[in-house]
Queue: 3 jobs
Job 1
Amino acid sequence: MQSLKEQINLQRLPHHIAIIMDGNGRWAQEKGQDRLYGHFHGVESVRNIVEGCAELGVGYLTLYAFSTENWDRPEYEVSGLMELLVDTIRKETETLNKNNIKLHVIGDMNMLPAYAQKELNESLEITSRNTGLNLVMALSYSSRWELVQAVKHIAGDVKAGKIDPDTISQDTLQKYLTTSNFPDPELMIRTSGEYRISNFLLYQLAYAELYFTNVRWPDFRKENLYEAIIDFQSRERRFGKTGDQLQQEALSQ
Ligand code: IPE
Ligand code: IPE
Ligand code: MG
């Protein structure tokens, strides 16, 4: 009997996996614990999944860790999450570096407390020359925020005479997004049984395969990731064409 990992076709890995890490609060509450207890255990899943992606050779992993809307949560939860973030970055940077993982951050960094920005900037610098897995943390991120930022920058550049509005294309817009250096995610996973996108990478997920699981984030492990990848590999990605066209293209290659 083949293990789940052995069932993965390494030639057809998604280049970019994006994950909405949901369900920490419910996981904790089901155990009669405080929500922060769930976030704390969620870090173990992050470690495990980052390791899993690095072992497989996935190019990009984007983790939605904190949304623009999450600032509206109770103050104690927000500050607890910020402390957890800083603590985790401090502890894990060395491991990231050892494993040749390059950290990136997307989102409104200016919203983060100064001590968190400092810690993140250090980690970004330390891992900046690594060439393995690109780990993208979405922090104080929302897609609508990102699109508004992009429009503002484009408008500014039009005003400054740097861009001719007639030449604006999908490529132009792509260059002004926070994800300009990354390929679009091919697989988007959301844990904990919620079937929504919650303002995450709305533009970039245009052709992503979506995978939803009831597993709460603190319980999500490599085996769950493998299941999602195997499911991804069983799907036919048509990009608007017909199944027959794709078969003919495959035959002519
Ligand atoms: C995801 O878990 C983590 C963050 C949004 C920071 P939640 O905290 O949303 O957990 P639930 O959805 O309330 O269970
Ligand atoms: C999305 O989860 C944001 C993150 C996982 C960071 P939420 O729990 O905030 O999303 P909603 O409120 O259920 O849509
Ligand atoms: Mg949630």
Job 2
Amino acid sequence: MKKSSIKLRLTMWYTLLMLLMAAVTLTFVMAISSSVANQTTLDSLDRTLRENALQAELEEELKIGSGFSFYRSGIYTLVYSKSQALLAGQLPQALMSLSLPFENGLSRPVETEQGDYYVMDLWLPCGWDDGIWLRGITEISQGAETRANLLIAAGVALPLFVLLGALGGWFIVRRALRPLDSMNATAAAINEGRDLSARIELGEAPEEFSSLVGNFNRMLERLERAFEAERRFTSDASHELRTPLSVILGACEYSQKFDETGEEREETIQTVHRQGKKMAVLIDQLLQMTRLEQGTEGLRMEALDLSALTEELCREQGEKSEYLKLDILPGVRVRGDRLLLSRLIQNLLDNAYKYGKPQGRIWLSLGRDEGELRLSVRDEGEGIAPEQQEKIWQRFYQADPSRSGGQGAGLGLAMVEQIARIHNGRMSLESRPGEGSTFTLHLPDAGAEDVEKI
Ligand code: ADP
């Protein structure tokens, strides 16, 4: 079943609601107007009768003043004797056949076949046991005319109002839901064109939509980053893997073509092995990098003793550890991923061994400084030229590939920087050519509570 549009549904709902409200209001107004009309009729009947009472007198005979009105504004006034004989005035046709008992001061409705009337009587005493009755009669239908007029007005105005309301509402709903159309169009464009760089532009929009669009755009950003990382990974990896692969293929082809001596063959095998190992390391590093780039999920953040972790790593350096000079503040606790922090420290140590002075000393220090935690690795190597100090953090950048001993591919420091960022920290480098380099990890010194919290 085709789903009806939300705009149509909204419009239909509130139009229905408007009709309902109009009906309720109309009923209410009619009820009030009817009661007001009745009250007005009764008031004017009472007033006319009392005005006429001032003009009527019974002495020897009945005297009626000139201000007496037998018929005015739909009100008949009749004069009756004490014995209830009609003395003056004209009875409406509809009441001719009725005999209504007199009741002083009481107005009451009387129903006849030709219409409904209000009747009110007033007793005017004259002398000690004589007097006259005044009877006022008026038709109730006067209120009905007002009601009919009201109904006609409502019959014309209400549908017009409802129509206007429905149209206005339709435009408002359409305007309010325009961001949805824009989102839909962008999503469709992304889907068709596979252009993940597209973003939804809303301009001024209600809060609900801005936050939805904000989330949608952030999701697109993540997707784009993931796809971009994937693409870069493929391109960098294929580029970097091609070199050792060409060496392996070349060596194999040479070995097949030419009759190699046992020694040469041994050399070929060693080359293939070395290049194969290089490829394996590279693939491993590339995979780690991509995982890091894709975000923080998969991390195992825990409260850990960075001092103990650093000491443990230094102990594991084997014979190389004899060149290490440690200055580690004990009990430094941080919140972090044990594996990643170990990898960061190991990379810095590896570089210090690789690029430091042969058999030179390496200083590793951990402590608190200027409100942050600092872990530094300093070597006595040749240092890094100022113009290269920015570049060494880029992936695949090597100041001098021959110096990495064919082991690295320029990924180590890029990874180190990324791990620092994941831990809300940063890396810094101080290096003077010929004097050595100091790589420092800066981490926020979180309070003990923040570190331990789950
Ligand atoms: P790799 O060591 O695999 O080449 P890295 O990303 O670890 O890759 O380092 C990038 C480059 O930075 C290295 O090729 C080297 O030129 C330079 N570098 C890194 N550490 C040092 C250091 N301690 N001293 C001098 N140069 C260094």
Job 3
Amino acid sequence: MSELYKTIIFLGKPGCGKGTQAKKIHDLGIGFHFSTGNMFRNIDETTDVGRYVKDLIDRGKYVDSETTVILMQRTLNKYVQDGRYNPNRQYLLLDGFPRTEDQVEMTNGYFNIVKVLHLYVPEEVAIQRLRERGKTSEREDDQNEATLQERMETYKQETEHLLSKYPNKYDVDTSPPVEEVHQKILEILGYAL
Ligand code: ADP
């Protein structure tokens, strides 16, 4: 089963545009967008696990890797069974996973990582984008200055160094307009128009 998960990883700091760009690829039908952040936000907040996850997200900390991996595998299996995600026809567009060394190790052999897209933008630009998103979205983690700073720190400490693990990594500057970045990503994926 697992080697069927032909995967494209979207990696980069909060606010770099992972979700925006992965969704655009999803909308073309090429891939299935799976965001661990969305997965966590969809958990019922009145359950123990829901409260635990919300508290961490609101403080800009990562959810522990065991919970993350178990929930991710369970959710993916459900999407395959429901027919929402077809691993034979679609790339898995992984947005926000892996984020730590142990997440990489725990899923070793689970994904066939075709390409890693490293989306990069200066930190100040990313923070500004998150502040803007916070004005119109429900996301409390985008509305709190301390949380924004903490998310950047967590990324630098836990995630940034993972980039050196991937020889099939492509750097994508996400300072240009969304559509321009999208075209660049399509080119990298071999779908140049
Ligand atoms: P962003 O990348 O903008 O911070 P996400 O929606 O990807 O937003 O993630 C929101 C939050 O969900 C993270 O700050 C973290 O608390 C949690 N989260 C998402 N993915 C993971 C993961 N792979 N491991 C641990 N925590 C995660």
